[in-house]
Specification:
Length: about 110
C-alpha cells in the first residue's frame, strides 16, 4: 500500500522563503486525508521557532509531533504545495486532536470566518 501524508502530521518540506531561496522547514498537514491520498498536492501550515504570539499562531510544545523545539504554527501562511516538496524521513510525527482544533480555529481567524 502506498503511504501518503495524513492530516495532523508534521513533515520537513522545501518551502520557498524568498525569491530563489529554498529553505527546509517543518510544516503541518491540514488538508483532508482523502484529498491527501488522491491529489498531487497537499495543504500545509508552516511552523517557526520564532514564538511570537498572534491570534493566528498556535504554540506546539517541544516533542509534540516529533518537534525538537517549541514552534508556532503560522496559520495565516496556509499554503498548497506539491507532494514532491515533502522530505520523507523520521521527522514526521502527528499532533493531538485538541491541538488540531486550535489550528482550525486560527485558520478561520486568518481567513476572516470568525
Amino acid at each position: 500500500m502506498i503511504e501518503y501524508p495524513k492530516r495532523g502530521e508534521i513533515y520537513l518540506v522545501n518551502l520557498p522563503s524568498k525569491p530563489k531561496d529554498i529553505k527546509n522547514r517543518p510544516a503541518l498537514v491540514v488538508s483532508l486525508d482523502i484529498r491527501n491520498k488522491l491529489a498531487s498536492d497537499i495543504i500545509v501550515v508552516p511552523l517557526s521557532t520564532n514564538l511570537r504570539p498572534s491570534p493566528t499562531h498556535v504554540l506546539l510544545q517541544e516533542g509534540e509531533g516529533g518537534l525538537s523545539n517549541a514552534s508556532m504554527a503560522k496559520c495565516e501562511q496556509i499554503s498548497t504545495i506539491d507532494k514532491h516538496l515533502l522530505i520523507r524521513g523520521p521527522f514526521a510525527g502527528k499532533i493531538r486532536k485538541g491541538k488540531m482544533k486550535e489550528i482550525e480555529k486560527a485558520i478561520m481567524i486568518a481567513i476572516g470566518v470568525i
